[in-house]
Task: structure prediction
Amino acid sequence: MGLFGPKGETIVINVKGMTCNHCKVSVENALKKLNGVLKAVVDLDKGNVTVTYDPAKVSVDDMKKAIIDTGYEV
Result:
C-alpha cells in the first residue's frame, strides 16, 4: 500500500499512545533519524504517522522498531 516514484514510497503507520505535541515531535524525530526516511508527519487526531522513505535504505520494520523504541505501540 504505497506510492512509488522518484520521491520514495509512502506508508501510513498507526501509532498508539500519542496524545500531545511532544509525542508528535518524538515520533517524527525518531523516524527522521533513520537513514532513508525522507519525511515523517504525525496526525494526532488519526493516531498515525505518514512516512515517505526510500525502501532501498530503510524497511517498514526498522521504522516500527524506532517508534516502539521511543515508547509507543504500532
Observations:
- Helices lie at 21-32, 60-69.
